[in-house]
Amino acid sequence: MAEPSNKGGYNLRKRRKTCAVVDRISGMPDEIVVSILSFLPLKEAQATCILSRRWHYVWASLMTLNFDTKKRLSTLKGLKPKERDQGLIKRYAKWVNSVVEQHRAPCIDQFRVSFYLDKSFSTSIDKWVEFALKKGVQMLELNLLEYVYYCKIKPGYPFPQQLLGLNREGAESAWKHLCRDGPSHQPCVCVGLKSLRVLTLECVDISGDVLEYFLRTCPVLERVSVYGSSTLVYLRVVGPSIALKHLVIQRCSNVVGIEIVDADVISFTYDGGEGIHLRLENVPHLVEVSIYEHREYYSFLSIDVLFASLSSCVSQLEILKMNNTILYYRESYMVPMLPNLKLLGLSFKDDEALMQLASFLKSSPCVERLVIHLHYSISNRKKCHFKNKKAAKCSHADLKAVKLVGYDGSTREDEIVKYLTKTAINLEQIVIDPARNWLYRIPKRKDAMRREEQVRAHFRQLKVPSNIDFVCL
């Protein structure tokens, strides 16, 4: 067979040479190249600076600055404090500083920091916050203690309220100043306040005064999430002029009260200490509420106390979650009607679950998804005063999916499964999760893992109707 001629049009050596010369990406406009780089992690996008002179600062025009280093966070757990502070943490801060100093774009969409950073890094973090606000950031997230299991090791980072022109005299002084003279913060910082849509602060100490100032001066701020602030005591979200739609307050140990009045809030989550003053009034758009109150390892909340706080909006709720709050059951109390509820999350002691479950299903005729967190009974199961009582029979047509978290394979819990298969006539799926690991970031012990395997073995022996998808995680 004749060898192909060099004139035949496919000399491989020449074709390789031709392909190596053509650099179509470098020929594209900067806007397109920046758009391509935006799909890479920030570290990788920054590394493209070595490709050529033209690429040296292309990455510096990125509008999404996500300083996320999950791999580094995992390595921190095994390091001693001195190694941690002098090594990875300082290198992380240096990296963020270098990006902030070299950035060239006139504005940014997102600025996200996620690393173990405390008060000792205040000078650097203050500069980052100022940079983000000057650039008209839309999403600002400071996640400063993501990996720690139990609690803060060092004092938290205080939010730099001086950037907003606020002193430390409290809300009254700040509010009078705002009403009389208007904001006194720098004009360039004011740009960020006008653009800010999402504010997420984890382990950042911020007061209710400063949060309220954000709500009043940020015309498009729709999402606020605060986690682990030791200086948040009281928060008021008042007035239809506030743009806030979604509010999350978690693990803020000193909170004593939250008021949401005459506002257009759609969803509200509170996860923290028990017994706070919660006022929800004239919130016509509020359709999702999550309440998790904690008292050491468990929280106990009377049903009537809970629904007294929700009385003004309970009939309009579509999602109600109480996953870590064990509700006291009182036979004399009638759960109010929840006519629009689609998703319900509950926590029960296993010896009271059936009685409470029946009450909630009766009051929630349209609920489609149900999540139940089961807790061991603190009292002796043999002496349980609900032992010989049966749940009221009812028929539920809309319930399609159920998840049981913390399932232990006890007789009472098996009764819950049977009750649901008989009550929910159109039930399609039951998911069993034997893990009891919802307590705050506490690692599993070996005996707990062995117990979970025993529960899974017990699960395989349960019999449910064949038309129901029965799953064990």
Notes on the structure:
This is Putative F-box domain, leucine-rich repeat domain, L domain-containing protein. It comes from Rosa chinensis. InterPro entries: At1g61320/At1g61330-like (IPR053772), F-box-like_dom_sf (IPR036047), F-box_AtFBL13-like (IPR053781), F-box_dom (IPR001810), LRR_At1g61320_AtMIF1 (IPR055357), LRR_dom_sf (IPR032675). It is a single chain. With about 475 residues, the chain is α/β, with parallel strands linked by helices. It has a domain of about 160 residues: Leucine-rich repeat, LRR (right-handed beta-alpha superhelix), CATH 3.80.10. It is built from 14 helices and 20 strands. The strands form three sheets. The protein has a 15-stranded parallel beta sheet that branches. Strands 8-10-12 form a three-stranded parallel beta sheet. Strand 14, helix 11 and strand 15 form a beta-alpha-beta unit. Helix 6 runs parallel beside helix 7, helix 7 packs across helix 9 and helix 8 packs parallel to helix 10. The longest helix has 15 residues. The radius of gyration is 28 Å and the shape is globular. The chain starts with 11 loop residues before the first helix and ends with a strand. About 5% of the residues have low confidence.
